[in-house]
Fold these 3 entries.
Entry 1:
Amino acid sequence: METMKVQNVTPNDLPWKIRYDASRCTLCGSCVSACSFRAIECKVERRRLIFSESDIPEPKARFSAVPVIRQVRSIKNYCRGCGICEKVCPNDAIRPERNPDTRHPIVMRCLAGDSIKRGGRKNLESTQRTLDKIRVGRISQMTDPSLDAQRHTFDLLAPFGRILPPEKLPLGTSPEGLLQFQENTPPVRWIYPVIIGDMSIGALSWRMWEAVAMAVAYLNEECGLPVRMCSGEGGVPVRLLKSRYLKYMILQIASGHFGWNRIAKAMPHMVEDPAGILIKIGQGAKPGDGGLLQAQKVAEHIQAIRGVPKADLLSPPNHQGLYSIEESVQKMFLSFNAAFKFRVPVAIKVAASATSVSVFNNLVRDPYNIVGGFFLDGIDGGTGAAHEVSLDHTGHPIVSKLRDCYLAAVAQGRQGQIPLWAAGGLGKTGDLAADAFKMICLGANGVFTGKLILQMAGCVGNDMGRCNACNTGLCPVGITTQEPPLVHRLDPERVAQNIVNYFLAMDTELKKLMAPIGNSSLPVGRSDALVATDRAVADKLQIQYVC
Amino acid sequence: MCRIGAIKSLDYVHPSMALQLMQSQQKGHDNSGFAMVMHDLGGIFENYKHLPTLSMAATDEGVKIAEDILHRAGFQRVMQWVPETDPQPGLDINAMPNYVFETFDYPKHLRNAEQTEKEELLLDMRLALRRALEPNEEGFVYSFWPDVVTLKEIGDPRDIGTYFRLWEPDDRFTARVITAQCRQNTNYDIVRYAAHPFHLQGYTALANGENTFYLKNVEFQRKLHRGYIGFESDSQCFLYTLHYVHRQLGWPLRYYKHVITPLPFEEIEQREDKEQLKAIRQSLAHLEINGPNTIIGVLPDHTMFTCCDAKKLRPVVVGRDEKTVVISSEVCGINEILPHRNWEEDIYPHEREIVAIDNSLEVQRWRQ
Ligand code: SF4
Ligand code: SF4
């Protein structure tokens, strides 16, 4: 017997175990070639078969070499449970199985001497979500009739841009008794209340990014839904910057300032203004931690767009040189407003945390009237790559933070002046309309979502630790990779179609929720329309408790 | 669903006309109360149009508290009218011991002051009176304003009329503008303040309907102006918005409807004034009302108007003869008091218009 090496990694140490049924396997090789993580391999096993050929048992042994599929025992090429092998196997001979006895968190750190990194999802098992403890409870009847979702018209639009308090509107009255502007006001765009959240062109594959852009153009031009998408950090292809589709894009600047060189250079050639600028300060899924684009994903076109060499690209957690809210307001907002000659709204994105309300309060007092939106991002969302410890253990849930911000605005009588946009695990259960609606009733003007968009595209990852390999550049479905063979797995037309269809369905569902409470415009702040089945949630959010 | 009505006339008319207007719409209310505001007063108030009149229902103690406060502030009573009541047994009315209609002269140092200074003081006085009387329910102060009188009571409108002897016309208690409501109490405790019409600094509003955006409205209005208090009824918000848009922002009346029931964005985009309309819609999003409503309002210059919600879920009709224009929830009310009018000229206001009647009874229809 060989010396036992119990320290060696075996499938039982890994988060997923491969269940393989050799009797069903035709050895077509599909699974091995499909596994982008190289987590399974072909191997030849030595088998011993006892048989007898005579009338009375006369056991003989025959040794044969049998080709089989086997799980790789490595912490580099470990199985992510993505299930692509199962998808491609014609005979149901192979599948990953969750290993409840995994030692992965320990083994991985022990062997690699490095912190675990992965795609952005909170994988700590969470309890029931707050949003699921809230229901739409005020149903109009008789004296205050519900509307007909199919027949009545609804105004599903949300503002993006600085809203002046009424007494500051520079309006005068003409001799005919009509109001007229005497000065310009800050730019405000009325857009669909669900924005496609910031996912960078480096994080996503070019096909995926194109598919999202295509879906957005289609939603705007064919379906009449003014959906906007945020570019994410890392720039935009020059062709798009110079095209008329730019008007659907919110350009993001984050702490790495990646891609802004090109954007600045393209400005004189822009035929349309972008939909807005988003200054990203923090991200909810890993607050206080910067973005992480590992070298594997920095393909040639990403190097060109971002203006960087092929190397790990780490966005610092904060904007170097900006340490106070006042300073950010002055420097960032003024310069971006000025860059686009005050025609483009500029908003800010921060991670939900104990300080979000103070930041919001500060911005609400902004004397220049240039903060065009407050994007608040909570835990439970996230698509990018980060250290697992940040993903799992930092951050604030979004619901109560958003509510706190809204109520802070109410206390000052300044609600709506800086539109509130919120995200972080919205649509996690698949029902974005319900989540968005509840957030709007709690005070959001609109919501943004990223992870769900990936899921619309066919992402197989989930919050239970399946896949989450967006950081590796080996996304098995071609969404978050720049490897050409993997990217080609993604059918951009289908992805665009899925996104468009999902938005159309969601649009109907939003109306189906607005109708019973008798609202034809978005019920921003209508917390009276909600009830909570949990006393603590009701108290915290100041909504009615029902049991 | 309440029933509402309003009369504007070239001649002074007696509240019996308003009672008749409302009584014929009996099916539309539940006899839980009646209230009215009279502007442009005749009869015994005619010579005191420039001086503020206090309308209040109070206990003896309440009257004393209120009068003391006003005297301390330098107001001097110049006239007092106590309606003769007819407390027959069996009347369904929840009467207060005293109904006070007293006209005061301004404090000496203010007599030559700017109009706005007086107006602010009148509001502060009314708020102070209300605050002082509220804790023990010693009294309810409905209005303290020149040329305006308010009466509200809980009970059957017919019996309220009988109690105050309002069924028999006389020429002592008259006005050119009378707005009235018969209540249907659904959402709120029956408190006197909850009855429409509501009055603030010369503005009166009353409504038939619901305000789905009540919470949004209230949360916003509370911070807008010190006079925006109470919120005993979800329709009170309409008055405050009217006051805010017309008085505080100084916008023409036609923009009121753009605030409370803004045009859909699609329609705004078609308009020449889209920039103004969008600015209004976004800055005043929290004053929007989203629910079935008909509103009747009166401005300080006695202009009377009506408008409805954008889906026109609550009825309203405007009828007229040479001397009188009547707005009513139901046409049967107008038939009762203007039986000989040409009913073909009746106006059923559109969901996107304001119908306004000026002091020469000219009717204007503004498309939103
Ligand atoms: S589940 Fe995915 S990672 Fe695991 S073996 Fe199958 S294809 Fe490879
Ligand atoms: S995007 Fe790709 S790599 Fe990331 S979780 Fe989804 S399928 Fe896996």
Note: Residues 492-514 of chain A form the longest helix (23 residues).
Entry 2:
Amino acid sequence: MTLNDLLHNLDSILPLAVLVAWSCILLIVDLFIPKGRKGWTALLAAVGLIVSLGLTILRVGKPTASFDGMVINDDFSSFLIILFLSSGLAGIVLAYDYLKRMNIEKGEYYTLLLFSVSGMLLMSMANDLIVVFLALELLSIPLYVLAGFARPQVESEEASLKYFLMGAFAGGFVVFGIALVFGATGTTNLTAIFASIGASIANIPILVMGAALILVGFGFKVAAVPFHMWTPDVYHGSPSAVTAFMSVGAKAAGFAALLRIFVSAFPALSTDLTMVLWAVSALTMFLGNVVAIAQKNIKRMLAYSSIAHAGYILMALVPYGNSTVSSDTISAALFYLVAYALTSFGAWAVVIALEKAEGKGLELDDYAGLSRKYPLLAACMAVFMLSFTGVPPTLGFMGKFYLFRTVIEGGYLGLALIGVFTSLISAYYYLRVIVIMYMRDGEPEARREFWVQFTAALTAVLVVLLTLFAQPLLSLASQAVMLTY
Amino acid sequence: MNLVLHPLILTTFLPLVGILVILFLKPEWKNAIRWVALLTSTATFAISVVMLTYFQVGNPDIQMEINTPWFNFANWTIYFHLGVDGLSILLVVLTTLLTPLSILSTWTAIEDRVKEFMIFFLLLEVGMVGVFVSLDLFLFYIFWEFTLIPMYFIIGMWGGPRRMYAALKFFLYTMAGSVLMLLAILWLGINQGTFSVTELIARGGIPANIQFWLFIAFGAAFAIKVPMWPLHSWLPDAHVEAPTAGSVILAGVLLKLGTYGFVRFNLSMFPNAAVKLAPWVAGLAVIGILYGAAVSYAQKDAKKLVAYSSVSHLGFVMLGLFALNAQGIQGGILQMVNHGLSTGALFLVVGMIYERRHTREMDAFGGLWKVMPIYGALTMIVTLSSMGLPGLNGFVGEFTILLGAFGSAYISPWFAGIAAAGVILAAIYLLFMFQKLFLGQLDKEDNKLLKDINWREIVTLVPLLILFFWIGLYPKFFFNIMAPAVDKLVTIIQTASVIP
């Protein structure tokens, strides 16, 4: 590889390269920032994300492949990269006051976050199973540490250990799956895998097993049933700002990998895999929503809700092998991810505003009377709950509309029926939050921290406005096609 | 016509201006908030009346149409498509009329969180008018589901003791039907490639067996909203717990969204299935008429009585619509308006006494006429209108419906025969209520000091009373407005019925 090639390759992954370099430098710079002034680290980390964001936006619409086709930079990845970088920003903004208040303010938080975001960026561009695995580890390991950031609190340590063990376990599945796929096709490059299936030189039974194991591994990451067990405990135990970032970023990265791998390498296997996806999606929607009803702690409730939403997104993946709807599969999933991300960050911002030290202020009953004392926060939370339920005019509704459309077009009316009925079940527990906030009296205490309130208000406005003026986001999602070559 | 100053846009979205103003008022300025809400909704009513003057009587088609692309959705285009015709315009005016009257009725009844109340109330108006005027299925669904949110808050925040249960039940019941409709809408979008109601109607040609399922899916949403027996059980809870203004709008307009849905979508888009299912729907309607009347008679709480009477009255509407002939449908539409006026007025009347005594048990009253003569006289007219006395509005509606049902080629005349008994039953339970409240001895101490209704309350009722007489004595004005559109609809149904 000549220097020229190297520069060309680096250029095509510039946002990622900048972010990784920035994180490494920030790790050192942070050492010189005195304790109690870690706001500077937060600011610098945010600047890094924004620079990377700017570079990404400049490159939209210019797809390139680099590193011998191992990394692809296309509109699909750009869309997700923008989502990941924004999630990183939200993770910083939500943590800024929260860490101080919880007495766990350390500069490492921001660097770890940047490393995790870098992993997500790489994940969305990975066109080779080895790169997928590297990205998976790069995004996960900082998250394991972040989950335990509130040590020596037992819940946080438990969350960290549990997440690590489960994550390692899932990583094992992915590696084993990759090995089988390599054995069946002789390559780990997604494009080459597709070609080898087309040329019928692949060993299909082993390939299907490999694909299924990869699905299992990412099933853990996106918290799909039956691989969801870790989610409630980890979401509950981790510091809320971490949970917010994790519940959006890690899930979206998992889906980025699933979409890229399945749509670009395994469309031919859909006859075998679609039924599995169907069942996993249906179970996930059902279990997530039903168990959420029983939750009394808002963090656990949101954890189960995030499981349910993984099920909805998986629904889009079910007809992925049907070439007439496969482009809708991608854009519906991406659109829903944005809807889910905005709604989640908003909801977590409200949770953070009400959380007190030692895990207090997290019971649903602590929200009683919120609408009288903090009308703005309560109104935002009501919007998020309605959006999670999928009631218009919110982004959650648009997302579900697109998902259901894709599924019905793909010929799975039954799954769409399960989808709408589980949404109905979900209305029960989401509305209960509104009932408690608006229709019961209580003495809630919330922080009036600027950044938290700002996040809640901004996401609430976006959730409604992006529905009424849906064209830009819809166009972006539908143009976010994958580069195939 | 200019898009912003278009009468339909103004009628639909003007309340938003009021909301914007209210948002900037302090919660303590309760009277200012009330006045802003009242003036905005009155202005909306005035504009809707202006719109009525633009309306060309005799034109069966959609008028004052606005049709502009809203957004693209893969290969679908969603249109911002509004318009009115003879089927919907009266309901629009009914909505804009009942809203200011309801707001007026809350003047002293709602003291807590007035700001939020008025915001939700005006939002509700936007949603309701939006449902009646939207002609794109996607847009329609947005408005349809949106009406749930403010009503949910109105019941849940300002309702009676069991308000949380009632609000949740209301939301879940209605949403259960709506999600089925959503799937049907998606099916239409995928297989017909358009969401335009007018185009779907004009094109026709949906296979009969599929029409059946689409009819069921749309019908489920509408039947719950109407509510048709046996899907009515959310209604008494919602009504009893809702504040007076909420009940007026719930009975007056929200229930009409269901019956309107049947006319606009089920009858016109799936005429084949409508013809096949007409006897079943009519059967449920007749059961509803008798059941609602019987249960009303058994009530001790005046508001519950009125609530169950809605089940009975809307049974009439459904019977008329599914007679599937011009008389039946015209009667059905007129009866929608009538029920909105009469039952709205009944809820107002019950609310007035509740505000004074904080009870609605009919046994707690008696002989009220002696202390509240004006109130008594007005209540009597309202009661007579609701039970269908000739010369008042209810009679015209019910008579036309029965006439249509007797002459229908699609349902047996027996349905009309049995339904006629409902008219008598209505007289029994309504007079029974009137008697318990106003006649007899004034023997309860609490009642002796009651003050008669004041000017504000009279003003709330008078517009409704005028309309009772207007519709009762000169219904031709109203029939003329809807007749061409109904005839067009009947032609569609007749054409469909000859196809096996």
Note: The CA atoms of residues 395 and 463 of chain A lie 5 Å apart.
Entry 3:
Amino acid sequence: MSDSERKDTAEQAEFRRYCKAWIADNHPGEPTVRLPLSPLEIMTPEQMAYLQSWQKSAYDAGLVGCDYPKEVGGGGRKDCQRVANEELVAARTPYYPNVIGLGMAAPTVFHHGKEALKQQLLPRLFSGEDIWCQGFSEPGAGSDLANVQTFAEPKGDKWIINGHKVWTSLAHFAEWMIILLRTDKGHKYEGLSYFVVPIASALGKGVTVKPLIKMTGETGFNEVLFENLEVDDSFRLDELGKGWQVAMTTLLHERGAGELVTPRAGGLKSESSLSISSRNVMDLATKTPRGAQQASDDPLLRDRMVRQLIREEALKEHQRRSRVPALIDHPMRLPLQNKLLASEIAQDTAALALEVEGPAASLYLADENAPARGQWPLAYMNSYGMTIAAGTSEIQRNILGERVLGLAKSK
Amino acid sequence: MAQPKNYGFEEEAGMLKDGARRFFAEKLPVDQLHALVADAYVPERAPEVKWRKELWDEMVALGWTSLAVPESAGGVGMPWVAVAALLEENGRAAFPSPLLTTLQATAVLSHCGQAGEAALAEVAGGCAATIAVMDPAGSAVPGAVKVVDGKLMGTASFVQDAGKCDSVLVVATDEGEPTLFWVKLASDGVEVRQDAIIDLTRDQARVSFDGVAADRIETHGAAAWDAALPTLWMLLSADMVGAAEWLLQTTVEYAQQRKQFDRSLGFFQAVKHDLVNVMIAIDESKSLLYSAACAIDHEPERARELAHMAKSSASDTAAFAAGRTVQMHGGIGFTWECYVHLYFKRQKHSQLLWGDAAWHRAALAALLLDGPSAAAAA
């Protein structure tokens, strides 16, 4: 019996038994398409369709959104999403493709949307039938998010949207977008409002999605151009001018510090993928010749691999310690470190793998001699997406310094 | 064996931690500590022991020396995770006392079964103890003291807080085999020579044994000694994590008050990000500390691995937090009157004691990459 099981409430224990049984009967097994490392790297419609069908089956079984009320398509359970997540991760099922929908859009719509809107949007979001993307970043508003200029002008009970979003992951698959807009040019923070907009149905009618190529050579994120897109006022979340506060709800959940647990599934990838962990790098080092020895005999590399292992272990332990109030000084101190640490540790681990591989780390995906099929250089490059997206590491440090340590604000 | 979700850190552990924090803050606030240990600022200080014995007597009266003593030997038998919390507070106050060494000795004795119970009973009764094992290079590999004709001969180096202790647990070799002895420091043939060390909050000595007849408490001490090592590392790590928290908190307060270029220091990202990095380092060390302590209580097969992690991390954090603190305090931080040098030096001392970060990582690498048998031979 695992430790979390020992602490289960009666409802959680019953739900866990149910999850185990369902997963045992419904695990899709070895994927029939090549699955990339993360949902943000989904490139082909085949990959998307495979993963959508998996999310749909998990939703139909009650494993997605199960802590949300039944009226909005949830399971009406209490503190059970964590249980489903644990069982799915342990069973190494495929991940869900609607990662922005589940992680960011759902809690934001739930906390700030009108009842009818929630009922319209959330069931299809949970089921994965509607993929979501997030329209925050703009060419002139990255880390300075409050500087967004995409403008919504009132026209009766409708809004006319014009502007340019960029680095928008999954937009080429998305039906809906959560979007931060400017509704008042005279005020920076108070001039922002938050909407949901249907983008797939508006393609060619006010919305253009242009795929961008990542430095890895892969697609996955986009530019989204708005030209006189007309949307109904019922798509607005919360009050006019409250967009910044709504965005904070999104960001809190994006950074893993929100109170609604994001549905997660296991880390199953196709055979050619890898997971970024120091154990994998150590494994790589024991198989990589270096002169007459193995890379794993190099004392400097050993030290650094173990250093990475220690950082990973600490990050894992943070989850446990953050639930022991006597052992933390500030409630947000550990949760706000999650995103920063996870992304920087992954980046450093991938960088180390390249050093272990040596010159062969330059051999990329298409080279038949590439160690690990060129996945480590791909992972290393992609890791910069993690330290930049959702607030750069520098912004995360500002937030930690200001909110947790109480240092003077830089804005 | 699984670890409990809350590290087994129950309500009484929290009360112990809170009570200890109040005790240390009230009994010896940092200005008084500075006055006690740093009143003179001669560069070549004589080897000396500066502490207040009556405060130790109060700690004994509070039962802190019996906390980790198993109930079978007349102690309280609290989990090590609670003891870690106590030592975290001890480090936060940089408190001069033999608490750490006494608890470390307790850890070794606790692995000796019945043979250790007489000594443990003394500890529970307030006997302050330390450990004599290191050679002049600081290696904690038994051999500095040997058994010759049934008596102890040799000199152990880097014996912590010997000037404050009543007894010493000697890890001597008898025909090459580590063997444990319990010796009164006042015994005939024992000589304690104090070192002049940078850390003003502790003392350290070379302890010589010249044909000392001593109580042998464990004839096969190798296993007990080896099994206790993770606890020794973990306990020192706890002190370092607490001291690092003091450094962070003090520097944050300074960065909020001190103005330069018309702004508080903490406004500037070079300072803000550095402070956040110190916080991140402390949190890493602290999570690993409680994980290691919990493993010692509940999952001994993982204790060594996790204690290596904890001490490696705590050593790096100690040096980093201390260095950044002096730097961010600027000229004031480099001044004798400023309290931070007390912690800076305590952290330097701790960082290098019982294995520095690189040593623990090398040991962990051996454990993980070469297997347990190779690691034992190293």
Note: Chain B is about 50% helix and 15% strand.
